[in-house]
Design a protein that fits this description.
globular; 4-stranded antiparallel beta sheet; Fumarylacetoacetase_C_sf; alpha+beta; Fumarylacetoacetase-like_C; isomerase activity; FAH; metal-binding; 7 helices
């Protein structure tokens, strides 16, 4: 099934896609909904309140996750284009809820950067609390998958050996539009899906999530060893080759571009890079 957080009359509602309607799930957003123990059963139930899909205004699929853990260097072709060796362990950094925007929101381009880059990513959404999860427990903790664009200020990212300051800019990271449960995707909790990103209609990235070095289950195991994962938490699994920073000549987002990030079976982000500065 496909779940989302919909903006409605100045607030938000957790919803399920049902044909051309969005069914209200009785919670303010998807993070709140996933915190319920029996959320999967409730998600399948009928409800009186529905909204049309046409014209829907999607918030970030989880608006206020307790954490967004991101993985760098997780596709072989991207590692090679960035001139690095294959890692022995996942490379982790973080984003924050204030970074997140909806599937059609404008991306705020900070005036402080001259190297604003795109990164299409499959994101894992957690559906139950876990710590030090292994095997089947890690698999069961995955509520589903969504689409994320890990927009990056490369000049800030590489100021130091730590990447955080290049990754955590306000209102920069589209997330959504839908969470799709593993049973509805080829490969289940280890999905094999086409990932594509285009800028003004030109394809920049194209790969398959089956090529991930560290698959979603491994990432849940690894991250939950370090810190507990809560319902609604997000793990961004990394980007394939084709980022602007690795091109010759380098290419960056300067403002006004239309960036479309799409993952097969999940959905697409369609965002315009704001010309008029940062949030």
């Amino acid at each position: 099934m496909k779940l989302a957080t919909l903006r409605v009359n100045g607030s938000t509602r957790a919803v399920r896609l049902d044909g051309d309607r969005l069914v209200d799930l009785g919670a303010a957003d998807l993070g709140e909904f996933l915190s319920q123990e029996d959320w999967a059963a409730k998600a399948a139930a009928d409800a009186a309140t529905t909204y049309p899909v046409e014209g829907a205004d999607f918030a970030p699929v989880v608006p206020r996750p307790s954490k967004v853990v991101c993985v760098g260097l997780n596709y072989k072709n991207h590692i090679q284009e960035m001139g690095r060796d294959l890692p022995e362990h996942p490379t982790l950094f973080a984003k924050f809820a204030d970074c997140l925007i909806g599937a059609a929101d404008d991306i705020a381009r900070p005036e402080e950067t001259a190297e604003f880059d795109w990164e299409a990513e499959l994101a894992v959404v957690i559906g139950k609390p876990v710590r030090r999860a292994k095997g089947a427990e890690a698999e069961a903790a995955i509520a589903g998958f969504t689409v994320l664009n890990d927009i990056t200020c490369r000049d800030w990212q590489f100021r130091t050996r730590e990447w955080l300051q290049g990754k955590m800019w306000d209102s920069s990271t589209p997330l959504g539009p839908y969470l799709v449960t593993p049973g509805d995707l080829p490969g289940g909790v280890r999905p094999e899906l086409e990932v594509t990103l285009s800028v003004d209609g030109e394809v920049m990235q194209h790969d398959n999530t089956g090529d991930l070095l560290f698959d979603p289950v491994v990432l849940v195991e690894y991250v939950s060893t370090i810190v507990r994962l809560n319902p609604g938490d997000v793990i961004a699994t990394g980007t394939p080759g084709g980022v602007g920073h690795a091109r010759t000549p380098k290419r960056y987002l300067t403002g006004g571009e239309r960036v479309v990030t799409e993952i097969q079976g999940i959905g697409r982000l369609e965002n315009t890079v704001a010309k008029d500065g940062a949030a």
